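MOLECULE: protein
FOLLOWS: sequence and fold
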Amino acid sequence: MKISRIARIGAIGAVAALALAGCAANEGGSGSSDAPADSTLSGSLDATGASSQEAAQQSWVAAFQTANPDVTVNYTATGSGTGRENFIAGSSNFIGSDRAFNADELAAGGFGSCASDEIVEIPVYISPVAVAFNLEGIDELNLDGATLAGIFSGTITKWNDPAIADQNEGVDLPDQAIVPVHRADASGTQETFTKYLSAVAPDVWTYEASDEWPLSTGEAGDGTSGVVDAISNGSGYIGFADASRTADLGQVAVEVEGEYVAYSAEAAAALVEASPLEEGRSDHDLAFAVDPAAAPAGSYPIALVSYLIGCVEYDDAETAGLVKAYFEYVASAEGQDAAAEAAGSAPISDSLRDQINTAIDAIVTE
């Protein structure tokens, strides 16, 4: 089998981009936003949600606040599940979430942040979910879906198991216990990963896709940082996290159509671009129906589609105007390029941007 070597975004570039964005925000330098230099926007927004978006949100907030010096945007990376709970409770003006609200949640309504039950959901952060590990002297491994399912379900327990060794000829695998790491909190990243396992290896991973981990085995980490810290500090550990946070760890190239594909923004985008939007949703509710089992050759099959979620109607027109302006910046080519620099995400296509802008236009500002 061949290995598709698609270059990953370097950690140094991401750190540098964040540093420059932070300096711009602190020093009041020329910002990068669609807003005019003499912006009249003012006020504050409080947001919570996906920790996968954290690096991207830092770059978006820095640029938006620089262009709009009288605006404050507070984004706290609580995890997607907590973000959705906060949106329902009314404590977040908008949220980031690694999945859209599902049909049952939309039918139940009761979004406390909104003046009605109509919401806007836009996919603005597309990123590979990396499978990362910590093994001395080993930087890369090839694994197929069935093997990953066996590792995370606990049926493959040693690193030198034949299922792993047969896919990694010439790699000196240790006779060492495997410690799988999952998220302790409800997480869209976790749902993305379990959806992949259940789609490509249903005979091994016999659990439904879920944002909550179905097993009591393995080790749990709080948020993306908790998972990455656990892997970094534990020899023999393996887990999954937004790829922007795993550059210093060993990486798994995942089998797709007989080839092993390393993660990259481009390969993740290829999976999403081949996926339809979910049926039965409004023009301002853009949720992708991603099927990892249908991943085309050359694509990376574990791709996170993360959303910004806001209200069509707010009780306060000023809040509505700020949310609309922020969403417009995030979806702009400039905003998407900023996220790509900071987090290694895949910029949305021009055609998807047109759909997203239509969705944002549904936000009532008067």
Observations:
- The first strand starts at residue 2 and ends at 4.
- Confidence is low (pLDDT under 50) at residues 1-36.
- The two ends are 59 Å apart (CA to CA).
- The CA atoms of residues 141 and 252 lie 5 Å apart.
